């Protein structure tokens, strides 16, 4: 099985999300502290890398919403249909738990907290993320 490995994180300073590979870089030669960075490749030998806020790093789930938008950990999704046997929301395949489901006026919102959390992704839509859109979580 081949799946695109992609991460995103909010850049230090301006908070703008960047997408690419995740690497950890030592803070300095004397420190054991490693800081997350996102590397964006533009072609052979051409790239940029940005330090990102650790709490905003999320991996691409390998799935897209009904509009083709890539779904990352930390995204807020709107579910307008029913999942599996009538339960509504995102189900973690490994732990069989429902992940942060909240009623919304026009559907159900859920937060992707694990890359295997989503089921039935053809009825969901990415409407924001937990970093930029806290107001959506009520």
Description:
The structure is a single chain. The chain has strands at 7-10, 17-26, 34-43, 46-51, 58-64, 70-72, 75-79, 102-104, 107-111, 124-129. With 138 residues, the protein is mostly beta strands. The strands form 2 sheets. A 6-stranded antiparallel β-sheet has the order 4-3-2-1-5-6, with no helix packed on it. A 4-stranded antiparallel β-sheet has the order 8-9-7-10, with no helix packed on it. The radius of gyration is 17 Å and the shape is globular. The protein starts with 6 loop residues before the first strand and ends in a 9-residue tail after the last strand. Mean pLDDT is 75; it is low at 83-98.
C-alpha-based Rg, rounded: 17 Å
For the biggest β-sheet, the strand order reads: 4-3-2-1-5-6
Low-confidence stretches: 83-98
Q: Mind summarizing the main beta sheet? A: 6 strands, antiparallel
Residue share in helix: under 10%
Shape: globular
Secondary-structure element order, N to C: EEEEEEEEEE
Approximately what portion of the residues adopt beta-strand conformation?
A: 35-45%
Instruction: Report how far apart the termini are.
Output: 38 Å
Individual helix count: 0
Average pLDDT, to the nearest integer?
Answer: 75
Pairing-aware structural class of the strands and helices?
mainly beta
Number of strands: 10
